[in-house]
Amino acid sequence: MDSCKEQEQQGFNQAKFVKVLGPIIVGAGPSGLAVAACLSQQGVPSLILEKNDCIASLWQQKTYDRLKLHLPKQFCELPLRGFPDDFPKYPTKGQFISYMESYASHFRIQPKFNQAVKTTEFDHGVWRVQTEDLEYHSRWLIVATGENAEPVIPDIVGYDKFKGNILHTSEYKSGSKFKNQRVLVVGCGNSGMEVSLDLCRHNAIPHMVVRNTVHVLPREMFGMSTFGIAMALLKWLPLRLVDKFLLLVANLILGNTEQLGLKRPKTGPIELKNVTGKTPVLDVGALSQIKSGKIKVMEGVKEVTKNGVKFMNGQEKKFESIILATGYKSNVPTWLKGCDFFTKDGMPKTPFPNGWKGENGLYTVGFTRRGLLGTASDAVKIAQDIGDQWKTIKGNDKSCNSHVIILGKPW
What we know:
Elements: H1 4-14, E1 17-19, E2 24-26, H2 30-41, E3 47-49, H3 57-61, H4 93-106, E4 117-123, E5 126-131, E6 135-138, E7 141-143, E8 150-151, E9 165-168, E10 182-186, H5 190-201, E11 205-209, E12 216-218, E13 220-221, E14 224-225, H6 226-234, H7 239-254, H8 269-276, E15 281-283, H9 286-292, E16 296-298, E17 301-304, E18 308-311, E19 316-318, E20 321-324, E21 328-329, E22 362-364, H10 371-396, E23 406-408
Helix pairs in contact: 2-10, 6-7
């Protein structure tokens, strides 16, 4: 009788298989679209596999209505095509989605939707990418699922006891459903701050849990983007000196945030972002609501009860709803097998700016912890690297003159 492993291999060998002449890109978010566009400029065809039914699914399906880009549009453009001139400085969620759709249309990018990747492995010189109904083969694999693929759900005692509503910010759309409710927002990053602000504007009563230290900076200084000022200063000054300048101006504009229960980390905001990926909060109005007492800052959660929450400082309060603004994580370890390029958290072991390329034709885009600027940088490098290989292969193999995808038996 065959072993389980032999049966699994036999089933794998009998599966339908698709030979992809160019790279396979996993993920049709901004990262996947950017690298596909750059590859097309190099004359390299590619195939994007997307688990959802649309491009930029995180933006389309898992973001709140009032979301805007936190950085000016010039810092959020993808390669080869910028935002329309008539877009505002900070495009809205809808405008960013329309930009993504226009970008895909312009470069004739047509992902294969509803193709969730189950497992991927490098075998005999080929990347074998298995979805629910097909197996795809290519010389190159580009991981573009990014840092924010899956919601992070913290393990807090008593969640199952709570009678109210518990949801992650990926399910939150508007504060209109929470009018007059006492709502606990767990997390004080950009999402936690903005959701709390949105709740205020819909006459809810938000309480925001601050579990760790956090840098809060004004979105603009002297009428200019704080991020833009930082990027300009870094061309001339050491990072730590730029951090000191940002914190000095932030304290002048915002005041001492520690008095509001928002303690700053000892490491400066830019250095902390580079080392850990933790983004500073760019304030768009939440801080004034904290100062006025409309958003109440709470300590860490000890336990969720039937009607509310017990906090680490001994306080206990009643809530109708709990919103988890606890961020996202990479899902790469769940489907990429036999590869030690990534950490257990699904991030490249090699730090920026060299984490875009692994071995055996493996590439990553969207894992720089530097937002869309990092994505654009990686996409250009990957396309150039694969483009050089493609020209050599194309010169030696006339079959590469065709972009046809071939269906057949496994190699």
